[in-house]
Write a structure and sequence with these properties.
The protein has 86 residues and is an alpha+beta fold. Helices cover 30% and strands 9% of the residues. The longest helix is centred in the middle third of the chain and has 9 residues.
Length: 86
């Protein structure tokens, strides 16, 4: 390629545009996947359950708020109760 070839207009190859695919559309909201059911076992407390599921015992309020219809007192949970872990 000579210097004159370089300066000729209209001979350059067009630059290809790269297209990015849009993210996939989820049919079920992510929050629905995040919840799971847990059966309370003997010796459990909301803070122990929070520690096991979130890695932080202080997140017990999150579990309590999601289960207010099942758990009336956060200090009293019973083996066999089924609760939602959000």
């Amino acid at each position: 390629m000579g210097l004159m070839d370089f300066f000729q207009k209209g001979k350059e190859k067009p630059v290809e545009k790269k297209t990015v695919a849009p993210p996939p559309v989820m049919s079920v909201p992510p929050a629905a996947h995040a919840q799971r059911e847990y059966e309370v076992k003997a010796g459990d407390s909301l803070s122990k359950i929070a520690q096991a599921h979130y890695g932080d015992a202080n997140e017990w309020r999150r579990i309590f708020e999601a289960n207010k219809e099942v758990i009336k007192n956060p200090d009293l949970i019973h083996p066999g109760q089924k609760i939602i872990i959000p």
